[in-house]
Write a structure and sequence with these properties.
The structure holds 2 protein chains of 2 kinds. Chain A is an alpha/beta fold. Chain A is built from 11 helices and 13 strands. In chain A, about 35% of the residues lie in helices and about 15% in strands. In chain A, the strands form 2 sheets. A 7-stranded mixed sheet of chain A has the order 12-10-9-8-6-7-13, with helices on both faces. Chain B is an all-alpha fold. Chain B has a single domain, classed as ABC transporter involved in vitamin B12 uptake, BtuC (Orthogonal Bundle), CATH 1.10.3470. The radius of gyration of chain B is 21 Å and the shape is globular. Chain B starts with 7 loop residues before the first helix and ends in a 24-residue tail after the last helix. Classes of the chains: A alpha/beta, B mainly alpha. The interface between A and B is large, with 53 and 53 residues.
């Protein structure tokens, strides 16, 4: 029965097919021969050659979230005429990222690499740093430890909870019900700090508001995130914010339900023209440009010109706040701007002594204010009073 | 089937059809690239250069191929028994957890012993995981494809639970992980390369699997049961035992991949363990038509495709999903080419025209 439906190929057709295949093979080979080979060229320090910077992201460049914020930073720094930048997106935290870094160094001649995902650091960045001691690896995450990690490794991170504090102020002023919602990925210190600062900001202008927290369990679970946003809307929450890789789904869901959102990582205003109040954004363009300037001036991590650990908030130019939405009233703007000014002049203390968590326990002893740079805050494992939720999963 | 000299036309068919399919998918991919605004021939050249161009970039390909060989067996072996199992990712994750647990428990023992312990733990954990799928299939009649797929999610949830709870290293604050395995206990690189020993494990496992399936009575029994389960039962073959054994072996291969990922790359277990090697392994198994030896070559090919993902982004400014489009095209075209087996007259055996139908899938 097969023979009836089979293809009848004449000898001539076969010959033709073979010829076509060969021709294809030859041309693709031909292309290889012609392509210019960019060998490994190590250019360091000299000012007439461009500084080649490599950027690696764990997700897509247009995720409206963390990766987009870095890609925007890369696009920003590329505007400098003496910077040449290459980028690679969707690189998992496996040998993949090691190979990506290696290729950037060997094929593109990158002398500075910015691997932007937290999980790239150990073991991947550390391994490559040992292999290429003349290349600088600047990792986003603030994990560098003096004496333990190689000299050509640096680390940077921002206290984005400062921007969350301001978003909390705006959210509390916009909320009618006094119920705010926070959709978070995992109960790790970084995330808890954002939840706490958001809540403290909100309660600084209206002590009656509460923040309902839902942990989804992972960085990118769009279905769960949408469910969480919907269930919060059902419970009467009228401002939602989040800490997940991409706030896209949450912001869109909230807009559909007619409630407010504040963004995170990047600007999501286009996704919710009506309900987007403001958002905590990274200003990586500024951070990367500063690194580029330092490198151009001949400074490196190895010669001590560039500090190994760079961290900061509004004052150091790590953060920005999305432009206020149309629904934000002047009072809220004034309060938020005043708080921002205090962050910039350094007089703001978010975590004051005597702070209680949501079980009533005192988590910061009275009289002991914790400044933003305090390492104590990086071990946070509690939620402040006013947060409805638990750290334990 | 594949290396059978007496029926060279069938052999030729089995070799040339996949190659033709690959070439055709390259053409399709070229059209896609042209539509995306890149010169297809420059893209082909880049892919070749990034994947196979020189020894340095070929090592990149081999590094990516190593876990795929092992995870591919997790689908390829049960397929010979007529089971479609896609629980590779879950078995890999569970194998990785087992390997870490063993590595930490044996800490202080001679490194070789620790490594053997980790490998055994990976094999057993992964094996039991897919073994459970086999048991559900045989004793309760649960569809093995669905159950193995769902077990992936359970495995990932288990991993997340263990690394953020019972097995958590308290110093791993923002990326919950287990305690690290000491450097001395880690698997090294193959001398003279940057490829880790996982590649050797993969090659050995594939060769063993091939001989087991093609050259032993056990393999013959499995293939018979895969061809016609009722006939196998009537012939008195222990179908239940075969199912369990094959599923255990399949799972242990993926578990070993997890062990390699932990012991040669990550050094600890955390969410990075779940990096889609399992799903790519399914692709490899299907392209290789569930032949373990072919799987080694296909793994290298798919590794090469993955290795070229970076250059497509950096040189041609193509989106990061381009490499997935390529992978998807290859998969679809190869799947479609399956339907051509036995249809092309030039591959028909002249002596016994009716004797060479498309039974090569057995």
């Amino acid at each position: 029965m097969n023979t009836n439906r089979s293809f009848h190929l004449s000898r001539r057709q076969v010959v033709r097919g073979l010829l076509a295949t060969t021709a294809f093979g030859v041309t693709s080979k031909f292309g290889t021969g012609c392509s210019s080979s960019t060998g490994s060229q190590s250019s360091s320090g000299s000012t007439d050659k461009p500084i080649v910077m490599g950027f690696i992201y764990v997700g897509a460049k247009d995720d409206y979230g963390y990766n987009q914020s870095h890609a925007e930073g890369k696009a920003g720094v590329s505007k400098l005429t003496w910077v040449k930048s290459v980028e690679q997106a969707n690189v998992p935290e496996t040998t993949d990222v090691q190979e990506a870094m290696r290729n950037m160094i060997e094929q593109d001649g990158a002398t500075v690499i910015f691997p932007t995902s937290f999980g790239y650091f150990d073991p991947h960045v550390l391994k490559l740093a040992q292999e290429y001691p003349e290349v600088q690896f600047v990792h986003c995450g603030g994990l560098y430890q003096e004496g333990k990690h190689p000299k050509n490794v640096g680390s940077y991170f921002g206290f984005i909870d400062e921007a969350e504090y301001l978003a909390g102020i705006v959210a509390a002023k916009a909320s009618q019900s006094g119920k705010l919602g926070f959709i978070a990925a995992k109960p790790i210190p970084q995330v808890l700090r954002n939840i706490n600062s958001f809540t403290l900001g909100a309660r600084s202008v209206n002590p009656k508001v509460s923040t309902q927290v839902i942990f989804t369990g992972d960085w990118s679970l769009p279905v769960k995130e949408a469910e969480a946003a919907n269930s919060m809307a059902d419970q009467g929450v009228d401002v939602i914010t989040c800490h997940v890789d991409s706030p896209k789904v949450i912001v869109e869901t909230a807009e559909k339900r007619g409630i407010f959102t504040t963004g995170y990582h990047a600007n999501q205003a286009v996704l919710a023209p009506k309900g987007y109040l403001t958002g905590a954004e990274w200003d990586w363009t500024n951070v990367y440009s500063k690194y580029a300037e330092m490198i151009r001036a001949g400074k490196t991590l190895m010669n001590g010109g560039i500090p190994h650990l760079v961290r900061g908030g509004f004052k150091e130019g790590f953060l920005k706040l999305s432009a206020y939405g149309t629904e934000v009233n002047d009072e809220a703007k004034k309060l938020a701007d005043a708080a921002k000014a205090k962050f910039i002049d350094g007089s703001m203390v978010v975590y004051k002594g005597g702070l209680q968590d949501n079980t009533g326990k005192i988590v910061i002893p009275a009289g002991k204010d914790l400044k933003q740079q305090d390492s104590e805050l990086e071990k946070m494992n509690w939620l402040v009073a006013g947060v409805v939720g638990k750290v334990g999963s | 089937m594949m290396f059978n000299s007496s029926r060279w036309r069938t052999t030729l068919e089995a070799i040339s059809l996949p190659i033709a399919a690959l070439l055709f998918s390259l053409v399709l991919f070229g059209i896609f690239c042209a539509l995306a605004g890149a010169n297809p021939f420059a893209v082909y050249a880049s892919i070749y250069k990034a994947a196979f161009g020189n020894w340095r970039s070929f090592q990149n390909t081999l590094i990516r191929a190593a876990p795929l060989m092992l995870t591919a067996l997790c689908t390829a072996l049960p397929a010979r028994l007529g089971l479609i199992i896609i629980g590779n990712e879950g078995a890999l994750v569970v194998g990785g957890i087992g390997a870490v647990a063993a590595g930490l428990a044996l800490q202080g023992a001679p490194p070789t012993l620790v490594q053997i312990g980790m490998a055994l733990a990976g094999l057993i954990c992964g094996g039991l995981w897919i073994g459970a799928v086999g048991a559900l299939r045989h004793y309760r009649g649960v569809n093995e494809t669905i159950s193995s797929l769902l077990l992936n999610y359970i495995a990932i949830a288990l991993l997340n639970h263990l690394v953020s709870g019972p097995m958590k290293d308290p110093t791993s604050l923002n990326k919950p992980s287990t305690y690290p395995i000491p450097d001395v206990d880690m698997l090294g690189k193959i001398p003279g390369t940057r490829v880790h020993y996982g590649l050797i494990y993969g090659l050995i496992a594939c060769v063993i699997a091939y001989f087991l399936i093609q050259r032993t009575t056990f393999g013959f029994a499995a293939r018979t049961a895969g061809g016609n389960i009722r006939a196998a039962r009537i012939a008195g073959l222990p179908v239940g035992k075969l199912t369990m054994a094959i599923c255990f072996l399949a799972g242990s291969c993926a578990g070993l991949a997890g062990m390699v990922e932990v012991a040669a790359v990550q050094g600890r277990a955390n969410e990075s363990l779940n990096a889609n090697y399992g799903y790519s392994g399914i692709l490899v198994a299907f392209i290789a038509r569930h032949n373990p030896l072919a799987a080694t070559l296909v793994a290298v090919l798919v590794g090469g495709i993955l290795a070229s993902g970076g250059i497509l982004q950096r040189v041609h400014n193509l989106p990061d999903a381009t490499v997935l489009v390529f992978q998807g095209l290859v998969f679809l075209v190869v799947m479609y080419s399956e339907s051509l087996y036995g249809r092309l007259p030039i591959f028909k055996e002249r002596s016994q025209v009716s004797g060479s139908p498309a039974t090569a899938t057995v």
